[in-house]
Amino acid sequence: MSYAGVMTGPDVSTGTVDYSNGAVSVTFSSNVDNKAVVVATYSWDFPLKFKYSVPAGLAASAHLAIDVQDTLAELAGQFMKMERDNLGIKMIVDNAPAESTLNFTATPSTYYDRQSVYADIELKLNEAESIIQDANGRGGVSWVLAGQNAANIFRNSKGLQPAPIVAPIGAHIIG
């Protein structure tokens, strides 16, 4: 097994993450504002293991019509996909330059309804496409990596063709 981690923030002098139970310990060099943002990032690399007993598998098959081996294989595949997706997301975050012109505020307006405010996100996509074309001489926006709140905005934007709703583990396509 291998572990790697970093803890950063205003006046953070030491910070640790206990990988066995997820406990976090932070020591500040001086008092910080109660709205200060402290970021803990860590990753781990260990083999994926599943254990089950033959009698339990037979009982699950007989009483619940569950094929334990197929179910475990499906879960293992979902976990591996999640790890792969998280690695891809981390690579994008670590290497993509920040572009302030693409910042989008979803703050509700007193004058416009939410759908009108969120319609501005299409302008941000057009701006991103222009930046990509200027930098590379070709290309455009074919997908967007977004957190849950931004994905909800995209999901409710005019023109999005929604993908079928599923309950995946990790990153997934919304439309």
Reading the helices and strands in chain order gives EEEEHHHHH
User: What is the mean pLDDT?
Assistant: 76
List the strand order in the largest sheet. 1-4
The end-to-end distance, rounded to whole angstroms, is 37 Å
What's the tally of helices? 5
Describe this structure in words.
It contains five helices and four strands; from the N terminus they run ββββααααα. The protein has 175 residues and is an alpha+beta fold. It has three domains: 1-46, no CATH class; 47-96; 99-175, no CATH class. The protein has a two-stranded antiparallel ribbon with strand order 1-4. A two-stranded antiparallel sheet has the order 2-3. The radius of gyration is 22 Å and the shape is extended.
Question: Outline of this structure?
Answer:
The chain has helices at residues 54-64, 68-95, 114-118, 121-136, 148-155, and strands spanning 2-8, 12-17, 24-28, 39-45. It has 175 residues and is an alpha+beta fold.
Give the arrangement of secondary structure elements.
Blueprint: E1 2-8, E2 12-17, E3 24-28, E4 39-45, H1 54-64, H2 68-95, H3 114-118, H4 121-136, H5 148-155
